[in-house]
Amino acid sequence: MKQFLLLCTSILFFQSANFAQKIGSETIEIKFTQLPLVPVPNGTMTYDVEYRNAHEEEVNAAENSYVEDKEAAQDEVDSEHQAVKIINAIGGNSTKARVVEKPYLPIVYTESNVLQKFTLNELSRSESPDVKLQINFNGFNYTKLQMTSTKSDVKYYYYSIKAKHEMSVSLTDNTGNIIHEFDVPKSNKIKTSSTKSFSSRSALDAYWANSKHNVLRPLERKITDYNIKVAQREITNQFGISDQTKKVKVGVVSGKKLDYSEYTKAYELVFEGAMLYYDDNENAKVAIKKALDLWEGALKESDLTNKKARVNDKVTAATRYNCALFYCWVNDHNKANYHLMKLKLLDMSKYKRQVKELKVFIDDHKARYEANVES
Asked: Model-level pTM?
């Protein structure tokens, strides 16, 4: 009896091994022209760049106030009676101007102190432009909080600095009307820094009064220079046309007992489509559509309840993934979203990350396609 059970088990294992599908993926590269999310108006040939500082008046007012206070403090000394000065000098108590602490004055950004040269596609700069990029600096803001630390039983004091510099970009036409505007991504994110540590609060305060510029200026530069680079990347992303190469994975299926030749053929077709996509887009889409027809045909056999079905739940998931991805490349975003929804409903852990990534890709591809078709 024991030998009989072992024989049955061996037969079942052998049948399962022969039946088992092999579901894998192949990576292909597609070179394509990425369209802008917001096309510049037709006929646009030139552009210019304008810098706007929301904090400029505030900085100028703070600087003027500091200069006036410093001059007033010196005037108090200068106006003191000469006889009193002599007496105080003899007594070793010469009158000094009261200390006027200089505030930190954030940078006012202009063409001369911004290292990044903002570009818009391959348009030429002009003083009478068709469109204008407005780079909006909304002001460097910081807060400081006194903190303490202990080392070798000695208490130290320092300031923790939290800062940010929010920025935005506007594209306007030659009449000043806004075509599009956006906040620079993550420019509202707070960056942290800290000062040197001192053994007393008074020493820390004295250091801050005299050296805040040395602490804050490098921090402001670091934050703003980074945001400026992000601003240019986003200008290219939103308004630009660029050549891109994207790696995509194609689900492939094979098996020993069952015929999956249409999956092999579909892979060959999308590989061909990828090779043609940049230089011969129409024929590339013809090849991809043929592959989609093969996958759609396989889905007609889908049987999610039968593990032994030729197109069971796992094969169905791989096929839905392929369809969601490649319908996008032929600009049929409704079908892409339909297959993505069906893939999501399968609730397979293997595809959770892919579902999220596909959703982002489909939405972005659709937005770019529709923006340029309508324009």
From this structure: 0.80
